[in-house]
Structures
1.
Amino acid sequence: MRHEDSQTPINFAPPFAALSRVQSIALIVGVIGIVAMLALSFLGGVFGLKQFFHAYLTAYIFWVGVTLGCLGWLMLQFVARGAWGVTIRRVLEAGTKTLPLMAILFVPVILGLHALYHWADHDVLFVASGEGKPELLQLKGLYLDAGWFVVRFVMFFVIWGGLAFFINRWSAAQDREPGNPYYGNMLRNISGPGIVFFALTVTFASVDWVMSLDPEWYSTIFGILFVGGWALSAIAFTIITMILLSKYEPFNRFLTPMHFHDLGKLLLALTMLWAYFSVSQLLIIWSGNLPEEIPWYLRRMRGGWGMVSILIVLFHFAVPFLILLSRRTKRDTRLLLIVTVLLFFMRMIDSSWLVMPQEFVNHAAGRPNTYVDFSFVSLLTALAAIAGIGGAWVWFYIYNLKKMPLMPLGDPLLERALTHGSEEHH
Amino acid sequence: MEDALKTGIYGVVAEFDNATDITRAARKAKDAGYTKLDAFSPFPIEELSETIVERHTRLPWLVFAGGVIGCIGGYYLQYWTQGVAYPLNIGGRPYNSWVSFIPVTFECTILLASLVAVFGMFLLNGLPKPYHPVFNVPRFDLASRNRFFLLIEAADSKFDRQGTADFLRQQNAREVVDVDY
């Protein structure tokens, strides 16, 4: 992977031709995805408009997760000050620059509010729930309100956008003035408090966008489950990008198995963390066995969604966990790519698993404990929507990636990141 | 007499002045086909230990096996007590209440894996070792001050008392001596 001629200086410009090719592929996949999603929702689907919006929300939370995960990792690596962070910094930054796109793409969710969230119809909260829980729902009604929902959405994006804007601005300035410690300090200073705001906003966003799909249900670990899940999506996406870019200059000049070993360790840690949070949530709800909480899981443990749950346990955790335990997997880019793509795909299935089963409940509004069987078409619609939004996301991501050198040239840790792993004799 | 001497020693040890020399000597010895090497230095030398130490230890596999046994054992303990021996209806949940069994299963996995890690490590590296022949070398206490020692054991299949000592002398060793039992 490493060129032996260390004489010629490394060219840090992104490989434009290769990236443009991926952009074209992304656009084609995106268009196919959108057409497939529309066709599956309105021609082959069971629930039409509801299916369309649930699939759209699935795709939205999946891709906004990659964007926000990148923001979280970016702040974390500024605070941790590791050489591993310097190597992936530009890739993460390009991820955070997709925030404006994700803000625009939220509009359909607002348009589909009534199809998605049955708390948006006030009758449901105040009248229809005749089974002894109206008080709880009425109290929740103060929070679950269409106006407040939009206000909170704006607040999330102001906070995330502000963090991403200043980080990217100072990072670019640091490139221009390598010797100036000011920007490095500012980047660390914004990242520390930024992580706190990040965890809080992601928690509230997960409650608003996903948990409230079932207004009676609640889980206190839900927010942190999203922080972990989205961090996993983002690190998986970053590893895929790094492995694909490692064939080209500048990365083919200095990336060693050591760099991928570091990233592989993070992937393994996040896989375990996600599993830990998921099991904690299930354990708490299983032990409580309360009528407000348990239906959410019963819906996902029976029939078709039960099969999907087993797939998630196996391929979102057990298989990647066992494979990633080995040191060889983390250092062999081919093996690592396979495991990472598997995990990235399972993140999509997990997003579908969180959102799609609710469409049946919402369809049978007023009878929230009715279990309708799994529809394979729904899952396909969600995956088509992920491909659809993904096309636009990846296109815009690469558009941003092409604008900057692929390494932060002003970072004081640059030298260490470039020589990382070269002291090894294997 | 000659024969007794040949078998009667533990090995030969070479004393070096600096880290560069001993590292080079260790690599040469490895290249020459010696396998039973050991090195002693006042401070850790990463390159040296990478040359000397067999990187692919079996310990990770032992730890993994320990983890698997702990996992299955931990689950089975609960399954048998709660589901077979003394079935208890707890809040209408199934007897094999697998979700509730996860924490103890997890803890047993970690417990057995870490016990195997600690005791397996002692088993494989032979510690604690109250007696080691290399301490019979008169100047060996310098290994904790400013000298570097490379040991080739007599148990090595390539070992030849005269030949090995000559080989070490050629590697810029300050002194080469026999290690008595």
2.
Amino acid sequence: MGEIEERVLELVRRARGGILQSQLWKELGINSRQGVRIVRTLLDEGLVERESIVAAGVRACRIRFTGVIEEHVPLTVPDSSKYELLIAGGVFVPCVGCIDECKPPICIRLNKWIRGLGAES
Amino acid sequence: MDDPVVHQYMVKIIGEDGVAILGRLPAGEIVDEVVSADTGMDINVIRKTLFKLYENRLASYRRERNPETGWLTYHWSLHLDNLYERLDIEFARLLKNISERLEFETSNVFYTCKNNCARFLFEVAAETDFICPVCCEELFYQDNGGLVQRLSDRITEMEATIRK
């Protein structure tokens, strides 16, 4: 699923009683042609359903989320010792948020982290 | 956020200021302007933090346009439950990167001078007749056995946690 489909699904999921297609297009700043194609993808995957309604005397379509809406997802903490391997000598892995071209053999920041492996032992 | 790994990860993404802001955000859906007015925190820092979280899939927003003014209001929701999923991605990336580095270390021979100006591949050192082009001292073989061992150990540890 692409980013735009995810955004549509998120909006539909948040609107408890469903959301009008026209409102979706407005929220996303897309035209109806693009929007219908995205909704079609979600309909085909069974993630949403569409119903025809008459709103203020005008025919419209309402999109509803078909899945279960979780009220609160508790933060499940997996074995955190695994993630401690991201740290070497007190230095957290420098690749997080790095926007430089990735060249691990000659990366200066990664070098610094690797030196930390020596400090640990 | 008490977990030091999570804390360091968040600092990498949103900085110390962002982490401080995150700790003060109310639960549920929030509007940056309202939070700024209620807490007195700088709205630009709040927005920057929320957009950084959004880039890392730790927050999402929905926009509402005021029909009278045309202004957009962003309603933000945090998704910190995605945190460990994000750490898994970083874990896999690190494993790939250090494996690549190990491959580079084991498939090459390195030379350096007594002043440690730089590391030179054998091919480069041979071209300069084993003389350091920086300080003109003699280049000698550098044993990278320790480095290879440390990288191998960490890769083994990381792979073992994946197999668990």
3.
Amino acid sequence: MPYDEALERFEPVLGLETHVELGTNSKMFCGCPTTFGAPPNTHVCPTCLAFPGALPVANAVAIESTIRIGLALNCSIAEWCRFARKNYFYPDMPKNYQISQYDEPLCFDGYLDITVEGKTVRIEIERVHLEEDTGKSTHVGGATGRIQGADHSIVDYNRAGIPLVEIVTKPIEGTDRLAPEVARAYATELREVMRSLGVSDVRMDQGSMRCDVNVSLMPRGSTEWGTRTETKNVNSFRSVERSVRGEIERQAAILAEGGRIIQETRHFHEDTGLTTSGRSKEEAQDYRYFPEPDLVPIAPDPAWVAQLKAELPELPSVRRARLQAEWGVSDLDMAAMHNADAFGLVEATVEAGAPAADARKWWMGELARRANENGVALAELPITPAQIARVTELVKSGALNDKLARQVLEGVLAGEGSPDEVVEARGLKIVNDEGELSAIIDQVIADNADAADKIRGGKIAAVGALVGGVMKASRGKADAGRARALILEKLGVTE
Amino acid sequence: MSELIKKTAAELGSLIASGEVSAVEVTQAHLDRIAAVEDRVHAFLHVGAESALAQAAAVDARRAAGDELGPLAGVPIAHKDVFTTTDMPTTAGSKILEGWRPPYDATVTRRLREAGLVILGKTNLDEFAMGSSTENSAYGPTHNPWDLTRIPGGSSGGASASVAAYEAPLSTGTDTGGSIRQPAAVTGIVGMKPTYGGSSRYGLIAFASSLDTPGPFARNVMDAALLHEAFSGHDPMDSTSIDQPVPSVVEAARQADVAGLTVGVVKEFGGDGYQPGVLARFQEAVELLESLGAKVVEVSCPSFTYALPAYYLIAPSECSSNLARFDAMRYGLRVGDDGTRSAEEVMALTRAAGFGPEVKRRIMLGTYALSSGYYDAYYGSAQKVRTLISRDFDAAFQHVDVLISPTTPTTAFPIGERADDPMAMYLADLCTIPSNLAGNAALSVPCGLADEDGLPVGLQIMAPVLGDDRCYRVGAAVERAFESRWGGPLLSKAPAL
């Protein structure tokens, strides 16, 4: 069912569960390293492989990071809480239970304010808890890469035991047609918070940030929530938005025909923007949670928590308000930058020395256009904020004009090197050499005798054609203003 | 038979340190004894003669080089096959780990090596330490040296039998519900369950994490104290390990007096279900303590009555989760992996083939007890009972220094008698379980032979958490008084093998 029609008939309720891999040096319960991309099964030990007799020891840095995340999300911090075992069998989970937290999360009852279309929306946080990641299964031989139809599976336990923070929202109601944008803005803002805290590299493409998106619909006017689905495999912010939209359309179509929504896990497909059915949750899996007897309870000293709170870095929303004031940008422009995921890029460009207005102009103009043409995110363009800053510097110094600057950007994006290298290789510097410019002008005057005569005769407006000729002959590298002045001088005309 | 095997560990240690005998001689004497009796006792699952002799030779070399040796350097020990060892297989008495060679040493193993103890081999046990008779071992039962038709207790039955049969002067055990004290009692030797967290569980294959406690077996209290000190103490690899100094148990064993102490007799442990000969010997122990200057009072611990059912919810619950890792994926047995079956099918087939009936029974009990909708009624209630039991202990220790009871309601029963009756089997741990639930220290020392069957009876001495030294102090006093009455250790009355 088309989105607009779906929204006329139904009201969506969202919920997001976000997993963030912490960037600690060692795993959650053992000393193994956590670096991404090591050869399979090289970052393993008796504990994270669940060898008989091996025991977990909790990573103190991970506990501290989780408390800092909780504080940044305005949560209460538990005075006393325990880890719990979540029991289920799966080949990539070495112990066949995951050490997680159940009814005693480390952080609870917080919120995160986000901005969508200029409006502030408060997303309430149910809980933030600490757990360990599983290993990674690769299913070989099937068409889909999923376990169904695969010949065999191989397991890499490097990821098993990496500290994972789960952040769960309370049900988000009242988003109306903005549900997809709210989901995206929440995920984006959450990433910004994680970045500002420095607790994770929050790379959705590498799986260090993963969003599970819960969606349900209720008929307009109803207050009773519908059955929800949980969409996994959502690997980018754009996909968060698309998956919500797609799921609203899918569920609305089923409900409109009198069907019922099956409570299940669904898999998002990047290529189609659609979800397909995964594991049914109709018969709720019984995880047989119980307090982890191998670990002692966590009882953070309130004075220490207070200190962590006092030492929190400036949070992104505060930072944005400050920068907006410093840059003198309108709310609308801020929103535009945010929606384009350009804010961080602009900020970095300003930090690299560019004037805010220029930084914003390039990212939101030329570069946004090119990203859009190529169907990639701004951040994915092969150009850095420092390079943009260099280009603005060259323009400011008069070495480039805007037209040349665009050609420089084109060169950088095409992989021709740094801005200076592109300028050099393409010979894009403005012609400031008076002798060279003078020779070009002499030639243009000679080639356009009629126009020159008209100017001599006082028809100064005709100088435009000669300036155009000079720009053409110099392939855009001449300083147009200087060329105009020289032409008039040579023709003995004063304005 | 070499006279060396009858010596105490302390004596052997000083003989080796002084150079009067070599560690190699001592080790060889015990290997010879093992070779002579093991076909009847079956205390060991693995004997590492070569590595034992090499370890002994290393101790001799250190002595020759002028190194100062610890009190147990060169003394042989039998190691329960539930601790990981890099140089010997580790099976936990289960088919599912048959032939598994761990890539790391348990902390207890490492500390034995550091103390210069010579590990003779790995002892038999009920599969995954679940049982009270070693009949649940996948590799056949161990026999009680007092009467080969009877059980040596369990789960550390290989450990108790090896010491009682003079195959080793010392052995390690683990006690989850009585698995050190009950085997010690029924084989006439000393066995100690330290305070929970006093000895490291790292490398101890888990049965029930919140209860499992490594501890020593010996033929006398002082030897047990020496071994206790050798492997106990804080271990950063075990989060539940207590970061405090080990109570001075050797000093306490030396002190061996009870004058001025108040001893509480647990009222709930006696009467129906207890063998008359056990109660008679226990009564004698009470009178003995009084004669030694202790004040004896009766103490009621009403919650102890619920200890057994609470234990049989908590221990199976934890085990159902702890044993989930045996899934054929990374180590151990793998059944049905013929390329046509899914990982889940191979897991199921492996677990069906690899676990014995008692292990399966407990996994099922625990899985059920933790299930949604039943958790509060079973696991939750059991945890409440656990708290009440701790409170009973706390209240009692306000008034008494130690509590005493028979270690077990009966003497060693015949092999096979209770094999098909789990409830009867579970009753063997009636008196020992409360200290596992509360985590406090408890010792079993011999207190005579039951009149009916001439088999050993144990006296259990319980002390508060971290009061391990009190167990040794009282235990050593009782031992000294009894041995002067008996004219030697109780074990000297055992028939020759």
